[in-house]
Amino acid sequence: MQNMETRYTHSPEDIRHYSTEQLRKEFLVEQVFVPGVIRLTYTHNDRMIFGGVTPTDKALEIVLDKELGVDYFLERREMGVINIGGPGFIEIDGQKEAMKEQDGYYIGKGTRQVVFTSEDAANPAKFYVSSVPAHHKHPNVKISIDSIKPMETGEPLTLNQRKIYQYIHPNVCESCQLQMGYTILEPGSAWNTMPTHTHERRMEAYVYFDMQKDTRIFHMMGKPDETKHLVMGNEQAAISPSWSIHSGVGTSNYSFIWAMCGENITYTDMDMVPMDQLK
């Protein structure tokens, strides 16, 4: 089973008077992983498609053709995949690879078929996918977290000690415009991306996970001088337009996957926001 929801773009002026309910409806994806289902969101922010593929007793394949005006899903797109669930498999144009937890994959434009399966239906793989338009075919690459040297940043004093694993990044593999990575906060740390920033040349989507049932994330968004927030639970996602800050604080430590696309693939291309300008 597959479903895809479309979300449209918004000006910062649009959200100025949004209620909590309206803000959540436009920018929060409350359910990403559903057993036996492909659940996708198509945001018109840089036309990113993201979501969860959770195979159980049957294989799942993303099939999007008429919806995108193409003959097959990745005819004019590239895609990143990271598994955050049980062990599974990904079969790319007939080539099958095992995908344990934290394994990732970059899949280039022109790939005709990607099929997802789980090793154990009772402990299914949870494949988080992100796909964006692409103009060139780059090689498909399997990515293991064990082969990535993380960026270690933050400190206990500021409650933001974390490791950033860059999966789809020029240091690891080529892509057209997709960047994708995995951030893990250390126990005792709660903040990510603070001091915060915007990047006018890229949008971003976050999915938060590794959270307990009763913990929550306060995901900060909006213009730096008019911030708002989304209260989020485990395995929920947020859309971050290019004009919005994207920062979060949790009631405990957590992990998240970030995916970006836009004008360039320079990770450090961002506009920092001084703390005294946040409102």
Automatic annotation (TrEMBL):
Record SUPFAM superfamilies: RmlC-like cupins
Record key words, sorted: Isomerase, Metal-binding, Zinc
A GO term, aspect molecular function: zinc ion binding
Top-level lineage group: Bacteria
Gene3D superfamilies associated with the record: Jelly Rolls (2.60.120.10), pectin degrading enzyme 5-keto 4- deoxyuronate isomerase, domain 1 (2.60.120.520)
InterPro entries: KduI, KduI/IolB_isomerase, KduI_N, RmlC-like_jellyroll, RmlC_Cupin_sf
Cofactors that this protein relies on: Zn(2+)
Entry-linked CDD domains: cupin_KduI_C, cupin_KduI_N
Enzyme Commission number(s) of this protein: 5.3.1.17
A Pfam cross-reference name: KduI
Catalytic activity: 5-dehydro-4-deoxy-D-glucuronate = 3-deoxy-D-glycero-2,5-hexodiulosonate
GO biological process entries: D-galacturonate catabolic process; D-glucuronate catabolic process; pectin catabolic process
Top class in the EC scheme: isomerase
Pathways per UniProt: Glycan metabolism; pectin degradation; 2-dehydro-3-deoxy-D-gluconate from pectin: step 4/5
Cofactor binding: number and manner: Binds 1 zinc ion per subunit.
Family that this chain belongs to: Belongs to the KduI family.
Function: Catalyzes the isomerization of 5-dehydro-4-deoxy-D-glucuronate to 3-deoxy-D-glycero-2,5-hexodiulosonate.
HAMAP family listed in its UniProt record: KduI (MF_00687)
Protein's recorded name: 4-deoxy-L-threo-5-hexosulose-uronate ketol-isomerase
Species annotation: Trichococcus ilyis
Encoding gene per record: kduI
